[in-house]
Amino acid sequence: MEIRQAIHSEHAKTLDTQGLRDHFLIEEIFAEGELKLTYSHLDRLILGGALPTDRPVTVPETMNKHTGTDYFLQRRELGTINIGGPGRVTVDGETYAIGTHEALYIGKENRDIQFESDDAQHPAAFYLCSAPAHQVFPTRKITVEEASPQTLGDTSKSNRRTINKYLVPDVLPTCQLLMGLTRLEEGSLWNTMPCHIHDRRMEAYFYFDMADDSVVFHMMGEPQETRHLIVRNRQAVLSPSWSLHSGVGTGSYTFIWAMAGENQTFSDMDFIDTTQLR
């Protein structure tokens, strides 16, 4: 478990390129046959990936020392979206088949969690996010068809995209964790523009389905002092509540967003006119 401390906006202004990358970019989400996690002090979000091959990947008891609890989800909830081949997640003895771009919400107080691939040569890749939870909600699988889709943007502005909202109140109850997957239409490269902030929630962006020679320029920082991170395939960015978040790619890509904080109102955003950006 890697630990990332929260960074004040004034501190962030003093960071060079490597400093920004060290604090906000997570370069390795998946490792074959392992569970890799990063603990962010931003709203206590934990994110990472499980990449099972010829044997299951489990959540070990040693995770307890990072949460100060008897087991990982004693006071947490967890969401996962599979971006690889078909797989399975077993939660306290009950197994859920999770296909490509399907999601699973795992409620608080589930103890034994195991990730498996149907085919080790074409493994499942479970992207994970976990947030503190105060109430037990049922574990549930969400298919692509069940996700709440919202198409936004305009092809003339290169930002036509469909937002598939898996973990949102319209689909199922969670304590605070929100997750979804956004797919850009062919020829569209901007994921959010005009951009926005939401001081009530932090967010994490996980970029994937990118060519090896493609990058995303992820915009961050306060609106009057913007910065950027160069992000490659299967890498993630931590976005504090004080930071805008937007991005443009040199080629096609998909991304998963996750949020935690004060509310679960997806439309609660403070939009920033492009004329105000610096």
What Rg, in angstroms, do the CA atoms define? Answer: 18 Å
What's the main sheet like?
7 strands, mixed
String of helices and strands: EHHEEEEHEEEEEEEEEEEEEEEEEE
Write down the overall mean pLDDT: 94
Let me know the CATH homologous superfamily: Jelly Rolls
- What share of the residues does DSSP label as strand, in percent? 35-45%
**Number of helical runs?**
3
Q: Structurally, how many domains make up the residues?
A: 1
Which structural class should the secondary elements be placed in?
Answer: mainly beta
Query: Which range best describes the helical content: under 10%, 10-25%, 25-40%, 40-55%, 55-70% or over 70%?
Result: under 10%
Low-confidence stretches: none
The first-level CATH class is given as: Mainly Beta
Number of strands: 23
Distance between the termini: 36 Å
- Label the overall shape: globular
Tell me the strand order in the biggest sheet: 1-3-4-11-6-9-12
CATH names the topology as Jelly Rolls
Second-tier CATH architecture = Sandwich
